[in-house]
Every structure is written in structure tokens, then in C-alpha cells.
Amino acid sequence: MASFNKVILMGNLTRDPETRVTVNGLTICKLGLAVSRVFSTKDGERREETTFVDIDAFGKQAEVITKYFRKGKPILVEGRLKLDQWETNEGQKRSKLGVVLENFQFVGGRDDNDSSGGSGSGGSAASSGGYEQSSPPKRESKPAASKDDFSAEGDTLDEDVPF
């Protein structure tokens, strides 16, 4: 039987991320997400329905979320559904459907009042797609080309292209 388990959600964090580190050094981050849907009823009344989703993130992604996200911040999450089942002390069976984060995206612009984002390079690399500006590498100077630098197979020059 074929199956496919993928969830894409965009919403706002309902609380600050809760982070812990296991004895093996794995970072685990738990966060809550509020996802809203606006719709109109048959009578033309506009309504909003909000769904609250618990999300678990692991590893480097959990560390980044902990560093840059706070309650109220928007986030786009890709992940998979996971059903947790347990039994209470009274013997009642419980279950909860949650999301295990596989990927995420920053949403919206950088908040100037945000103390965690700062003006350091960590925030700029993440919000600009991971590209950082740097100076070009220094080139070593080589002697001028001579007849011996050309190969007989393609007449190519053994020197770097200047751009």
C-alpha cells in the first residue's frame, strides 16, 4: 500500500520554543503553532477558525529555531504527522497528533526591536538565503605565458581566467 505523509503549515508561534539537550548531545525543541483560516458562512458572515499544532524539531534546526524565534513570530514549517499514544495513571488511553519538523522557513521581515536577531552575521545569512558577502580570494601572480604553456591538444593557456 502506498502512503505519503507531508504537512506544510504557516502560522505564528503560540509560545517561546522550549529546548532541551539529551545526554547524547541532541537538541530537541518543542513549539506551538497557531494556524488560522478565514471563511464565510452561508449567511455571508466572516469567521476565523484557529488550529493549534504542537511541533517537535531536532538537531541544528532546533538550535536555529531556539535562537531566532519567539512567541508571536511567523514561521513556515514542513514536516510529517506523528501520532503519540500513552496511558494515564488512571488507565485511560490518550493520543495526540503532532508534527515532526523536517524543514522550516523564516517568514516576514526582520524585526528591528528583536534583540535575538541582532546585526551579527548569524541573522543575515539565515534571512538572505544563506549567502554571505565576502571579499574575493587573492590571486597569485604568475609569469607571462610562453610557447611551452600551450598544449598541442587544445591550445589552452595554463592560467586562471581573470574573472
Automatic annotation (TrEMBL):
The keyword Translocase does not apply. The keyword Cell inner membrane does not apply. Gene3D superfamilies: Nucleic acid-binding proteins (2.40.50.140). SUPFAM superfamilies: Nucleic acid-binding proteins. It comes from the Bacteria. GO terms for molecular function: DNA binding. Keywords: DNA-binding. Residues 151-163 have a biased composition (Acidic residues). Residues 108-163 are annotated as: Disordered. Residues 137-150 have a biased composition (Basic and acidic residues). Pfam families: SSB. Homotetramer. NCBIfam families: ssb. This is Single-stranded DNA-binding protein. It comes from Thalassobacterium maritimum. The lineage of its organism: Bacteria, Pseudomonadati, Verrucomicrobiota, Opitutia, Puniceicoccales.
